[in-house]
């Protein structure tokens, strides 16, 4: 399906101005090493990797502050709305991702159901609901504003978590119902965070800023 949409996407794309700049290979290598060390720490819980991550990350920050064409523009770090959106997004995405990965183990331990039942009865309805919530979230942002939708999404996630925490043994279908609202809340917050981040960036910063948001989302999830 993705391949089929490419010709239509090319037709609506506006040709951008190309610039001849050197690629910051050193910055890419330093950031890659720091990310690898951080991921190794989160999987092995070896403090050596955390120390290495800190060292390489500090070197990376100093490097992009010195070069003329850095891999990531250090000015983004001084953009308060952008950084708040990035931090909030990473935090919310990681929390929901942790919950999603925990659900199969929780359902199997409590209700002794197989993987197919968990996928079809619990996870599938929630993931499909994202289609509806995604459209509805964009509509609410235009009508009610970003703050309203962000609070609504955060409350939806929080209330669903609390309900599952206290009543998880009541019924598997309750978890299914709450899972729908968790995914709906995630869809709401993603819509708002994307809007906040994109609106806080200048035309020259949009590409690198949105790429950094997508990268943060990838690491969190």
UniProtKB/TrEMBL annotation:
Domain of life: Bacteria
Name of the protein: Tetracycline efflux protein
Cellular localization per UniProt: Cell membrane
Keyword Transport in record: yes
Keyword Cell membrane: yes
Membrane topology designation: Multi-pass membrane protein
InterPro entries, sorted: MFS (IPR011701), MFS_trans_sf (IPR036259)
